[in-house]
Design brief:
Blueprint lengths: L1 H13 L10 H4 L9 H17 L2 H14 L25 H8 L2 H15 L18 E3 H17 L6 H14 L10 E3 L19 H17 L3 H18 L10 E2 L12 E2 H17 L5 H16 L1 E4 L2 E4 L2 E2 L16 H4 L4 E2 L3 H17 L4
Length: 377
């Protein structure tokens, strides 16, 4: 199976250029051309990680080719719209750090500074959390924690003073405002102002537990446990990850090890086992166990979910392999005339696709963790 997965990943890279990537289904369905965006950023992070583990220079070369396409000599990033204040746009900057270390090209360090300056200008809630986007005032989404805070931590580690207090403060706010005490799960979004139509007028929370939102948060916590160098800060993040993992394990499907699109509604009509969020949780459990943050039982749980992805979400057509059951996109607030109200009915209504990087990238990260152990698949 290793060989088939390797060929699948290599084929996606071979079909891609910096201008058009084979895994960005949102762009392929519209303009066909890509830009500086979080979807490609997720895949570049996965390819960079896999290259480090396997020594496959082709993956690293592709990552660098994408950065070279966008990053100008002065550190400006073409198509990056800082004035829109979108946390999503920070995510692709994560690969700037390893590529700068590998190549020494000054423009990558400058580009990291460009993104860090954008975060300094990002609007914040009264509680000190980043707005998810300019167009979503006072709103904190779990997605944004992944998009911004690991990058910010990497900048602090490589070019800053090692002050992680802002990062810890924002994660504490998520824990305090978005965690459900009964289930231990986290709601997708929180409106500090309580003005959004999807927000509970008392708590400010959205209505449902969307799998990929919880997956983004899981991956962010796990990666921060590796990035953050301050022992006390790292342990606080680790405690939150342990609590979340302990809650999540009760919602895995007993037959497959996968997780449901709306996490706590197993078997409800319209609900389905979703691959992107499942892969994110598996990655968090596998990596968390490797880092010693999570107990060994989570290595087994992560492997069970990874096996579920192999057995239930991979399809084979001749020599071609694909990853299915990926929710294309979900959010909160009206977009394109669609009312995204955080309800169960909304989350199951979004398109389900194959081979989108929001699923493929976490799958590759899972696969990288499995390859670290040398276990055959």
């Amino acid at each position: 199976m290793f060989e088939k997965i390797d060929r699948y990943i290599e084929s996606l890279v071979q079909q891609s250029t910096p201008e058009r990537t084979a895994w960005n289904q949102e762009r392929l369905r519209t303009t066909g051309k890509t830009d500086w965006n979080y979807i490609d950023g997720c895949m570049l992070t996965a390819l960079e990680t896999l290259s480090e583990i396997t020594g496959n220079e082709g993956f690293a070369d592709f990552v660098e080719s994408v950065l070279d396409y966008y990053v100008q000599p002065d550190g400006a990033i073409s198509t990056f719209a800082a004035e829109k204040h979108r946390l999503d746009d920070i995510n692709e900057g994560r690969v700037l750090f390893p590529v700068y270390q590998r190549t020494g090209k000054e423009k990558y360090r400058l580009a990291a500074g460009t993104l860090r300056d954008a975060l300094r200008r990002q609007p914040r809630t009264a509680e000190g959390s980043y707005w998810h986007k300019e167009v979503y005032p006072d709103q904190v989404w779990l997605d944004g924690i992944y998009m911004a805070l690991p990058f910010q931590a990497l900048y602090e580690r490589h070019f800053g003073t090692g002050d992680y207090s802002d990062i810890i403060g924002q994660i504490r706010t998520v824990r305090d405002r978005m965690r459900d005490e009964k289930t231990g799960l986290y709601y997708h979004g929180y409106d500090c102002s309580r003005k959004a139509y999807w927000a509970d007028p008392v708590t400010g929370r959205s209505r449902s537990f969307w799998l990929r939102a919880i997956g983004w948060f899981t991956v962010a916590l796990t990666d921060l446990c590796e990035i953050v160098t301050d022992a006390a800060a790292r342990e606080e993040i680790a405690d939150i990850l342990r609590d979340l993992a302990s809650s999540l394990k009760h919602y895995a499907d007993p037959a497959t090890g996968l997780y449901w699109q709306v996490v706590d509604q197993a078997g409800r009509e319209g609900n389905y086992l979703e691959s992107s969020g499942s892969a994110m949780i598996a990655y968090g459990m596998l990596k968390g166990a490797r880092l010693g943050v999570l107990g060994e039982e989570y290595r087994s749980l992560g492997m069970r979910t990874f096996d579920g992805l192999l057995n239930h979400c991979l399809t084979f057509t001749g020599d071609r392999m694909g990853l299915d059951h990926i929710c294309l996109v979900a959010g909160l607030g009206t977009m394109g005339g669609k009312v995204r109200d955080g309800s169960y009915e909304y989350y199951i209504s979004e398109p389900v696709v194959s081979d989108d990087a929001k699923g493929v990238a976490p799958f590759v990260l899972c696969y990288s963790e499995v390859k670290r152990t040398g276990n055959p698949v």
